Amino acid sequence: MTEPEQQPQRPAQYGPSRPVDLPPGYPAEYEADVVLRDGATAHLRPITPDDAELLVSFYARVSEQSKYYRFFAPYPQLSDRDVARFTQVDYRDRTALIVTVGDEMIGVGRYERTGRRTAEVAFLIEDAHQGRGLGQLLLEHLAQAAREHGITRFVAEVLPDNRKMITVFTEAGYKVAREFEDGVIVVEFDIAPTDTSFGVMQAREQRSEALSIARLLTPTSVAVIGASRREGTIGNALLRNVRDSGFPGRLYAVNAESSEDEIDGVPAYRTIRDINEKIDLAVVAVRAEMAADVVLDCAAKGVRGLVVVSSGFAEIGDEGRKLQRQLVGLARSYGMRVIGPNALGVINTAPGVGLNATLSPVMPSRGRVGFFCQSGALGVSILADMAGRGLGLSSFVSAGNRADVSGNDLMQYWYSDEATEVVLLYLESLGNPRKFSRVARRLAGRKPVIALKSGRATQGVPLGQTVRRSKLPPATVDSLFRQSGLIGVDTNGELFDVAQLMAHQPLPKGRRVAIVSNSDALTLLALDTVASTGLDVAGEPRTLSAEATAADFGAALCEVFADDRVHSVVVIFTPPVQSNGAEVAQVLAAAAAGSDKPVVSTFLASRSVPEQLRVPDEYGGAARGSIPSYSSPQYAVGALAKVTQYAEWRRRADSRIPDLPDVDTAGAEAFVTEFLQRHPQGADLGDEDRQRLLSFYDISVLPAFPVLSADEAVARAEELGFEVILKATADQWRMRPDLADIWRHIHDEDDMRQAWAEMTSTFGVASDPARAQFVVQKMAPPGVPVVISAQEDVSFGPVVSFGLSGVATDLLGDRSYRMPPLTTADAAEMVREVRAAPLLYGYRGSDPVDIAAIENLLHRVARLTLELEEVVRLDLRSVLVSIDSATVLDTSIRIAPNEKPRQDTPVRRLT
């Protein structure tokens, strides 16, 4: 086969090529790898003067019609003056972004300011690449750049028959106004993000990222690069596993050092370029230092994606990390996505695919479970365990170092994959927790997602995986899972316990469980687990005698399935001498058939779906309606509890983000900008600034007045009309259980002077007004003290926490956590899930407090920290919640420059 005249060249950088001498003000943060509508990748970046030749070459390939649509007149070529104007921009009032594949430009978009808040926007896309979503991507990124420079509205002029460009604007999710002037349609729209525009972006992101994974999982041709005839090598194992999996497509072996025509019966070539057919997927098993050349060969061949099993990358240190960045950068720049490196590989059991491109010799049976795993070593044992459980797979990906394709991408794919009904995740790190939460929440609303996260207690990250290190406590990950609707588990066994139930039984409609058993001892174990997991027993357990027959089981089962109070059924059957297990299985299957109540069993201590309880599917596996069995009732009930919690999350009512119309976001943003001008390095806010910032979000703080003497304290109390407190504020005295740092119920001057004398004898007194450690404050209504905090984390972004005040709460870590934005259900759960929550609901005869007021504060703090990235810490350190109000008594806020932008941006990009 003749090679293309122009071969892909290795760029100087570890990724897509760009000019070396960048102009002043070049915004490197605008650079992004992006996924196009067809699932291929490209690179988006700002234009530079060095792109003149690139622009001229691009323009020469654009059709005359597209040029006419852009300039409203014949414009066959660009003049030198045009080229200079289009490539020389200031990245503020005039910005242009280009999209490249390899070393060619395929699209450009630009805006030019026409007024203080308005800019004109225009695009030009190479004809061969129109219809791939470049216009929408460029619009998203241009709008984001424009917003950063105070532009709030875009204007565009479009010829009436340029329907493609009109569609780009009208389908962007903004509210578009159109006018017809002098034969031209004038399109205008505000570019502030809206729920609609964000929803449009997310839908496009899901479709394109799902398709990028489909290109990897559904190839019609595969080349194993590094294939070998030698037993015991990775290349040999990969080639044989693909061949023996029944893959119906074309398979090729590539080995640069071999001159043979075939390897193990598979056609062999020295390079992938020598193959005379189109190649969809390359499975790579070569030395790490050879990987970049392999990528270039694959780019020349038009390969759609890579599975890199080779090791020797980021897991070995800095040199390997450089090779890994180079590998991924090159692949993405030429339109390819990468699974790995250091990956176990991929499996797809779908009809017509039948692909096992992994190092595991086990080809799982076809099923409805999708599995993402980061660890290659663990992946082999997981596949073996699944086979032992009788769980069938739809698809499996082990991503290794997770340099490109991640669990987020697989969740996007499984969201629309009809073959997958249950998703399993084994996670060693969360590369982009905010996106993970958003994508997982969307998927969990449609399909159950069961997740096992390692390293929660240690915050450990495996070698080879580069992530931002969070400083948040391990409980944050658990809260993130709950908020997103994920079913979090602690062990591999629990992962499969829950998966067995999800794959075969319906979701329960409530928490009440009926138990039918022929063992008193096992019934007690089941009852203990029911109580400890928060489930309820529906009536008394139906405990049968050891001599119970199949008919006895049938009668008891008919009762519980007919009982409207019962939501789930636990069946325990141990083999008495005179009973026939097959007969019991028959009556159990018959009683459960057609029921909408989930059933779990401990059937002869089996740990799978026993043959007697299996409803066979068309592939010989276990279909829905099969009844899973567990080796102990504790495991059965534990799995049922997890599924019940997920079902409740799915049924949550009123789960919306409140509007909060009284919030002044623009005023708050202006305040933060002005504060950072005064404090470029960041600083803690003083009382006045804290009050001002919180007022933009309608959060009121009860004023506290510093005092330096008894006379000042008396005078201030008189101004307030007494009924005040005297409080020590120095941090070293706060939360000391052995010291009373607040003197309450001060009614007159004598009370104040006595309080001052007692307090200063304990704490001393400061002479510096800036360090005053006592304040006088009006008494708040009696209530329960709580703490609401928000923190900007380098990994998770903004995180809001809630708990009751007190040393015991701090020691026990009794806090709830959520990532904004908060829905009404999120805020309600935050208040209710802390262990000390009964104190808010009338514990031991006390008055219940105003829960709605707490939730309102949570929403306002969440909104503030979501909108203002520079607010790196916010503490409502003392909020006194009474029966009808919540009074904020003490606050602490820090504002600082945002050195690392949040990872989940309002525009689509690969991270």
Structure description:
The protein has 911 residues and is of the alpha/beta class. It folds into 5 domains: 165 residues, 3-Layer(aba) Sandwich (Aminopeptidase), CATH 3.40.630; 290 residues, Rossmann fold (3-Layer(aba) Sandwich), CATH 3.40.50; 144 residues, Rossmann fold (3-Layer(aba) Sandwich); 166 residues, D-amino Acid Aminotransferase, Chain A, domain 1 (2-Layer Sandwich), CATH 3.30.470; 77 residues, Dna Ligase, domain 1 (2-Layer Sandwich), CATH 3.30.1490.20. It is built from 25 helices and 37 strands. Strands 1-2-3-4-5-6-8-7 form an 8-stranded mixed sheet, with helices on both faces. A 7-stranded mixed sheet has the order 11-12-10-9-13-14-15, with helices on both faces. The longest helix has 23 residues. The chain is flat and about 105 Å long. The N terminus is likely disordered. One of its GO terms (molecular function) is acyltransferase activity, transferring groups other than amino-acyl groups.
Supply the key terms.
911 residues; Aminopeptidase; Rossmann fold; 7-stranded mixed beta sheet; 25 helices; 37 strands; disordered N terminus; ATP binding; Acyl_CoA_acyltransferase; transferase; GNAT_dom
Highest CATH level, the class of the largest domain: Alpha Beta
Strand content range: 15-25%
Strands ordered across the widest β-sheet:
1-2-3-4-5-6-8-7
Distance between the termini: 37 Å
Q: How many beta-strand elements? A: 37
Instruction: State the share of residues found in helices, binned by percent.
Output: 25-40%
State the CATH superfamily name of the largest domain: Succinyl-CoA synthetase domains
- What value does the average pLDDT take? 90
